[in-house]
Amino acid sequence: MRRHQAKDHRAGFPRLFRYVPYVIVQDASAEPEYEARCVSGDAADCAATSGSHPDPAPVEEWQRRHTQETRHTRYRRTFADYAVMERVAPY
């Protein structure tokens, strides 16, 4: 293996590996998405959903109403957003 690497990669440009720090931030150009799905039920999940919302408040309100109407108390909540990698500026 070492002979292969030395023979096949000896010529060419030298490699330079540099640590470049990045941070992961929420993409401000896209709204996050909140949603809940009812997973209560005896034989099968109810599967009623709140629909997707850019804020958690309407989802939580939907859960309260659904519980009042059905007495279902178990939900699977999901949150999704877009993230971007931003390069950290040097000091």
How would you describe the overall organization of this protein?
The structure is a single chain. The protein has a domain at 31-91. The relative contact order is 0.26. It has helices at residues 2-9, 56-70; strands spanning 22-26, 33-38, 75-80, 83-87. The mean pLDDT is 87. The chain starts with a helix and ends with a strand. The radius of gyration is 25 Å and the shape is elongated. The chain contains 2 helices and 4 strands. It is of the alpha+beta class and 91 residues long. A two-stranded antiparallel sheet has the order 1-4.
How many helices does DSSP assign? 2
Largest sheet strand order? 1-4
The average pLDDT value, as a whole number, equals 87
Total DSSP E strands: 4
Return the string of H and E elements.
HEEHEE
Percent of sequence in beta strands:
15-25%
Report the major sheet. Answer: 2 strands, antiparallel
Structural class: alpha+beta
Distance between the amino and carboxyl termini: 41 Å
Shape: elongated
**Low-confidence stretches at least 5 residues in length (pLDDT < 50)?**
none
Report the C-alpha radius of gyration, rounded.
25 Å
Helix content: 25-40%
Pfam family, one: DUF7848
InterPro entries: DUF7848
Organism: Streptomyces actuosus
Protein name: DUF7848 domain-containing protein
